[in-house]
Structures are given as C-alpha cells and as structure tokens.
Amino acid sequence: MIAMIKIARLLLFISILTVFTACGKNNPGTTEKPAASQAQQESGKVEESQKPIENPMESNPIENSKKLREMMPKLVKDLKKVLIDDASKLWPSFNNADKQILLLNPSNKIAYLMNNQKSDIGSKDEVIEYNTDSIKDVELLVTPFQLTTFNDHPTYVVNVDISSSFGMMSGDKAYENLFKFIVHEGIHLLLQSGDSVEGLGTRAETYPEDINSRYYRNEMYQYLKEASKSKNRDEKIDQIQKAVYFYELYLNSNKKNKQQDGYDNIEGMATYLQEKAYLLLNHPNTSTKELNDLTAQSIIDNFIPADQEKEGGLLVKGREFYDIGSLAIVSAVDLGLDDKAIFTTSPLGVLKSKFGSQKAEGHENIKTANNDYYISYNNQLKSYVDDIVSKQKDDKYAAVRIPVTINNASVMYEDMMVEYKFKGNPAEIQTTTREIVLGDTRIKLNKMKSLYIQNTMEILKDPTKMDPNMVMGYTIVYVPKKDIEINKDKLLTIQRDDLLIFDAKYEEKDGEYQILMK
C-alpha cells in the first residue's frame, strides 16, 4: 500500500523540492454549517494570485498570510479541475468522485472544501467556505497534509500555511511549486493508496555509499533522457534498451537496490503527474502526444544536479526515484504500454519486459565525475555517522528516548537520513526539526541529530483507521549530561538551541532517560 508505507514511517523525506509524508487519522471534521456557502473563486485577479511568494520560514508571516490569501481562489479552482473534474485525464484509473479535498489556510482563518459530499450544506459543484475556528479537529490545523475523514467522508486535507513553507520557493514559480506539491502528495494519497509495487526498502543513505550503483543510476538517467527526446520510435527503443542494461547492473549489484526498486514507481508517477497536471492547466487544448512531450521536457528542465558547478551534473541521490522514475514513465506512456502495468510496477521493469536490453558503453565523463563526487560524499557520511557514535561512547552524554505516535508528532524536516545498526536493530541517523506532544509535555527538536528506531507493526490498508496512539517508533537524542535538569518532582527539563523539553515524566532504563507517554 503505497500511501500507507509513507504514512507508517511517520517521517518527511526532503530532497531538493521537498517531498512529504504525513499521518492519516480517524478524527472527524466539523459537522457545523460552513461560514459561507461558496468560495468566491473570482474574487481576485489571477495575476495577483500568481504573485511571487517567499519562503514563509524565512520571511514576514503577516505578508505571507496576505499572499496566500491572494492565491487561494485560483489554487482552489485549479486543484478542483485537475484532482476532481479532470482526474481521469491525468491517469485513466484516477477517479475522485467520492473524495473531498479540504484546503486549510489557518493564518487567514479560511478553509475551502471541494467536491463536498454532505448534501445538506451544498452541492458537489459548490466550493464550500469555512472559518477554520469552526473546525473541531484541531489536529487538522497542525498537519501539512493527510488522508482523513471530514464530515464523515474520505478527504484529502492540505494545510497551505504549513505546506507552503516546504512546497514553495521564492520568485515567480511560487504558485507553480505549491500547486505541484499539493498534486504530488494527492497522487500518493488519492491514487496510489490502493495498489502496490514491487519491492520497498528504506530510503535512508547507506554508509559507505555504493559508488557503482550511483554510476549505474546516472547512466540510466542519461539514456532515459535521450529516449524521451527522440522523435523516432526505433531510436527511442534503442536508448531505452541501453538504460535497461544499466538497470540490470544496478539491480544485481546491491541487495538494497532491489528492495528500493518500487520507489521509482511511487515517486516517478507522482512527479510525472504533477508536471502533467500543471501543463493541463496551461495547455488545455493540446493533443495527448504534445502533452506527453511537454511533460518530458518539464521533467528534464526541473533537473537539479548534485554538483551544480559542473556542466552535465550528476543526479542528486535523493532525487533518483523522482527523476529516473518519471522519465521511464514518460517513455512507457509515449510508447503506449499498458496503463495498469505502468501504474503498479517499477517503470524500468515494464520497459525491460517489453523491450529487453542491449549492452551500452556508457559515458566516461559521467563515470569519472561520479567517482570523484561520491568519494567526497562518503567522507561526509563518515563524519556524520562518527559524530553520533562518539556521543554514544562519551560518558559526558546521556541518551534521551522519546516515543513517536501517529498523533503526537508534527512536521519533521529531514536534513539527512543514514542507515545504522543500534543494538543489533535497524535504525536511522537523522537531523530533524519537529515537535512532539506527550500529554502536557511539548518537545521541540531544531535541526537536532538523533536516532530513529521504527517499531514493527501491521500496515493497515485504510490510513484513516490507524490508531492515533500507536507508537510508531522512538527518537533517541544524545545530550550533554550537564544540560539535563531534574527538578524536585522528578521531572526532566532540557533547554538548548537544538532541543527543548519541559517537565517531562521519565524513567531511567537500559542506560537511557526514557520519556513517558503520560
């Protein structure tokens, strides 16, 4: 279950254009009457709603709130068109007739409900406007996005205030980036949640990084890019077969590569459809072939090299699933391959089964650049891992273990994730910014390096029915003992720039300060 795998990990994976995951909950929305019966979608000029918006994390919140308010009417109109009215034009099996979309803009106290399923407050065609103060489920107001229940119906909820700080960049592409971000996560939660793909493993970094695997991936990208550009079917297939050759080398060179194979489908499909959705808005009368070509070019144009100072730069490691997966889907669609196969299988696997492979020589400049880059990269990873290992061994540091549930954790920003073994169990070293609520205790991590250990649990098919109090895993932080305060009531407090914990209940166990749920 694609969306559930992302939900179950309860983490946000950031890579260049930020990619989210979020928690589904079974909390009902308000059943009160909305503040207004219909959004005034034409109440602002389109040009004004497309004005640039700076990153809200780095600029004036009041000004950002004003700009978001200007954007909302157009955003509502465009999202309704691509995710509800014309969903099947994005992908044949995409049908949201029974799904609602709720956009929240808490800073302006406005929410917009699209495809309303509650007939006593309006028709499906109306866009219902709410005052966010009337929404009883306050958790909706602090989660960037999720698939949940609102007014007793399945609903894709997006908090624009929070999401804009991750989905947008400053400049004239602000609206485009936010729109694409909402569509991307909507594809995960609305389209992909009912199907599965082959093989899924952790997306954390491996130390040391397998340099050969990264080279094979870069060659796959180069040949898929040429395939997408080719106007001749035979030439296109020729490039695809060479990409498949390196795909086979990639799968056979490392066990983890096979485990991660399905992510090319998950992120590739969402990337392909976010680009197609934006182009559908701006080229409504274009042919299917022209739209596919435009989508391919857009994916290529949005490529961001790992080494931006070198011409023809390498893939960013965390972006491989998005760039390679989406380009493989471009060719599979262009060549008329089966929709269901493309949707449910690794896209390179689909191309392999249809066209086979042929040996390719590759690109010597890519190989040289790859080796140089990842030798340096491995040195950085070593430093990252060594830092936390040294703190584990240092008597001046203490481990603080914090339980993470579906319900208690807000946005998590991932600077880096590296696979790690902790007491023989799989774990990840992370640098995170997040807030965790445990009863009356609020814990804030600000770019804090930590370990994350995930609990083994059953993955439920319906993300709206997961127990919000289920412990998904534990975050372990290493803190100088001198910074830990224990008061007379045996409550723990830590006040640091990277970690704030006030009056938390705890127990000392297994050499750790283990924070209690209540």
TrEMBL record:
Residues 27-65 are annotated as: Disordered. Keywords: Signal. It comes from the Bacteria. Residues 1-24 form the signal peptide. PROSITE patterns: PROKAR_LIPOPROTEIN. This is Lipoprotein. It comes from Paenibacillus pseudetheri.
